[in-house]
Each structure stands twice: as structure tokens, then as C-alpha cells.
Write a structure and sequence with these properties.
Pfam families: DUF5984
InterPro entries: DUF5984 (IPR046026)
Structural class: alpha+beta
Oligomer: single chain
Shape: globular
Radius of gyration: 18 Å
Number of domains: 1
Number of helices: 6
């Protein structure tokens, strides 16, 4: 997968924004955070069929996603084997996509406490493996799900979480389907490229952070 860089904006473009792409730029950390968290401060854009899922509005102002990108990097490295592998939705409900499956699963409610717990625990556990949202670190990351369907990856998003927070995502809800090979190529190129950048930026005195980057790379190698 070719990684294009726009030097004027210092932004990396991986993939085709009209199909599926990830763009990012690492920026100076405004909070003087150190190590891998501090060095990963930057902007992220996730494109699906020409839609930038990371854009949101506060009032009339359109904003882009800027935060510690390590949270996204870490989540992908930890969960790609669930997304690319065989990890179907665990509950006996029917739906055309992830959003419908979760909506149907949310309606389950019976008097038996243990069954209620087991049902919703299975749902929550699966959700943690298929959306980066719980790993957002307090940021305004869009709620996006990634699920394998045959030889494709379904990308679904629903940002109703933000409705009462005066935040409106430009693309608040939707579903897209990307060939698995294309999805894997873009995500792997993004992760390898940004891990390379972080490794160069992090001082040798942050050995634990360096070690963490090595461990994330090893997780990726298992799926290559």
C-alpha cells in the first residue's frame, strides 16, 4: 500500500478517500505531554466513500479530530485479529448491519438476572473488540464499528452519544462496505507508518514506550 505525503500540510494519505482512506498528521503537543502519548498528538481523518467520519460541528464551526493518536493505534493493534478474523456478533438476533444487531440486542430484557447479565456482557465484550470508541481517552472520536462480513469489512457509525453534548457529526450515522484486502492494506500501512514516525520521535530515555511500540509491531506481524 502506497503512503502519500503532502509536505505542505505534513499530512500522510493512505488509501483512496473516495473509497477508504486514513489521513493523519503528527503535531506539536499543546499540553507538554511526554513519551509516546505526547508524541502521538495529531489529526486523524477516516474516509469512507468520500465521507470524513471524523468531522464534527460545534455550533456553526466544523472541527477536525485532534488528539493523542496513540489511543487509536493501540486499539487497532490489539483488535485487528478480531476485525479481520472470525468473530461474528455473538447473540441470536437478526440485522442487516452492526447498528441493527446492537439495536436488536439492546431490547433483550427478562426477569432472570443471570441471563440478563450474560446477554449484555456478551454484547459489551464484542463491542469493545469492534469499535475504537471506548478507547477514545476522553476525546471526540466518532463511534465507528468494524466487522468482517464474508470477504468484506463493514464499517458502521452512529454518533447519537453526542446528541446531548452540543456536538453534531457531519456524517452522524451510516454504513459502508470495504473489501477486506483493501481495508487491511490501508490500516496496516497507516499503523506501520505512524509507528515508524513515533519510534523516531521518542527519545531513547523513554525505554518503556519504545518497548511498547515493539510489542504493537509484533502483534501486527502475526497478521501479515
Amino acid at each position: 500500500m502506497e503512503v502519500k505525503s503532502e509536505e505542505k500540510q505534513m499530512k500522510y494519505v493512505i488509501g483512496d478517500i473516495n473509497k477508504f482512506a486514513i489521513q493523519y498528521i503528527l503535531m506539536p503537543n499543546p499540553y507538554d505531554e511526554r513519551g509516546v502519548i505526547g508524541q502521538s498528538w495529531g489529526r486523524l481523518d477516516l474516509w469512507v466513500s468520500g465521507k470524513n467520519l471524523c468531522q464534527y460541528k460545534v455550533g456553526d464551526t466544523v472541527n477536525v479530530y485532534i488528539w493523542n493518536l496513540f489511543y487509536v493505534i493501540e486499539w487497532f493493534c490489539e483488535n485487528l485479529h478480531h476485525i479481520l478474523g472470525y468473530d461474528p456478533f455473538p447473540l441470536p438476533v437478526k440485522g442487516e448491519n452492526t447498528l441493527e444487531l446492537i439495536q436488536k440486542a439492546d431490547t433483550f430484557d427478562i426477569d432472570e438476572e443471570d441471563e440478563n447479565y450474560l446477554w449484555h456482557h456478551a454484547k459489551r465484550t464484542w463491542i469493545f473488540r469492534h469499535t475504537w470508541f471506548p478507547n477514545r481517552g476522553g476525546s471526540r472520536l466518532p463511534s465507528v464499528y468494524f466487522r468482517r462480513v464474508g470477504e468484506n469489512i463493514e464499517i458502521a457509525w452512529n454518533n447519537n452519544f453526542y446528541e446531548n453534548k452540543s456536538i453534531e457529526f457531519v456524517h452522524s450515522k451510516g454504513v459502508g462496505v470495504i473489501p477486506k484486502k483493501e481495508f487491511k492494506g490501508v490500516v496496516f500501512a497507516f499503523l506501520n507508518n505512524i509507528l515508524d514516525e513515533l519510534d523516531l520521535k521518542i527519545s531513547e530515555r523513554f525505554q518503556e514506550d519504545k518497548k511498547q511500540l515493539i510489542e504493537l509491531r509484533e502483534k501486527l506481524k502475526l497478521l501479515e
